[in-house]
Amino acid sequence: MHVLITGANGFVGQALTKHILSQGCVGDRRVSRLTLLDRQFDGGLVDQSTDGLVVEHQGGDLADDQWLKDTLGRFPMDVIFHLASIPGGMAEQNDELGRRVNIDATMTLLEICKAQTELTGRKPVFVFASSIAVFGIMPDWVSDNTPLKPQMSYGAHKVVGEVMVNDFSRRGWIDGRSLRLPGVLARPPAETGQLSAFLSDIIREVSQGHAFVCPMSAESKTWASSLPNIIENLLHGAAVEESKLKSNRTFTLPTLCFSMAQMVDAIGLVYQQNANELVSYEPNPMIEKLFGCFPLLETLAADKVGFRHDVDLNNLVRRALFKGH
């Protein structure tokens, strides 16, 4: 089986790559070729080809449609994890770049899949990493039927991707699955353009006994999952049988809803720190509006086909810093 990961050098992409390399399979199918796409690669993702598994790194501009077609036209693909994107803050600052990567590159990938299916009859599974940013302004209760009202370009781009994945699946050109990812914890300290980076920083800093200024109030509520949980759900998304999906190709992943005060308590309990003394609160109105007003969440469609959350907040903060993804 040939697996493609776009955005393979990113936080989630690296963890997914390492998991597939360690297990050698996706679901119950063995992986024989793993193609990794990103603009560039860190030293950590070195060539790890082994007997029976060829790993290929391709560095380039995903917004260059000819490069994508030339790179991916050599070997038929079985599973695609499309993780690459220009995230929220960066997409707001650079509208053209956001659209080229988040919309144009997604469309090029879908067209490549269509051409493969029409030429060979080999229809790839297309796992699209969408985002809870599609919701934007939320009501008091979010379910599978909640209208989408994105408040940032990134969320709007993801809505476009979801619609096209559904349409290409309807036409029989791909076996698509769009997974709306919540905040993923805990990201390493880096300038990624992610406005929600503080949710990772607070776990990393307070777990080490460092003081932290939280940009949201103690009562503000958000959604998040650990990185291992997200990897499990991405792999499940690729492995679940198409017959179980029917016409529904978009899933809001189950995740935990909690207040910042609850998160601080969990960090203190799991890492044996006096967290309430280490954390002070200086709410930023913009940050709190974007990430601190999340309501209760119901994910019946995702639950039904086997997607899962972290069980509880203690488990989330414990797994967030676990290195053996």
Mind explaining what this structure looks like?
The protein is of the alpha/beta class and 325 residues long. It has 2 domains: 2-182 and 225-252, 3-Layer(aba) Sandwich (Rossmann fold); 185-223 and 256-297 and 311-320, Alpha-Beta Complex (UDP-galactose 4-epimerase, domain 1). The chain is 40% helix and 20% strand. It has 12 helices and 16 strands. It has helices spanning 11-23, 65-72, 88-93, 95-120, 153-170, 198-207, 227-239, 260-271, 275-278, 285-291, 300-304, 313-320, and strands at 2-6, 25-26, 29-30, 33-38, 54-59, 79-82, 125-131, 141-142, 175-181, 183-185, 212-214, 221-226, 250-252, 256-259, 279-281, 296-297. The strands form 5 sheets. A 7-stranded parallel β-sheet has the order 5-4-1-6-7-9-13, sandwiched between helices. The protein has a 3-stranded mixed β-sheet with strand order 10-12-14. A two-stranded antiparallel ribbon has the order 2-3. Helix 4 packs parallel to helix 5 (153-170).
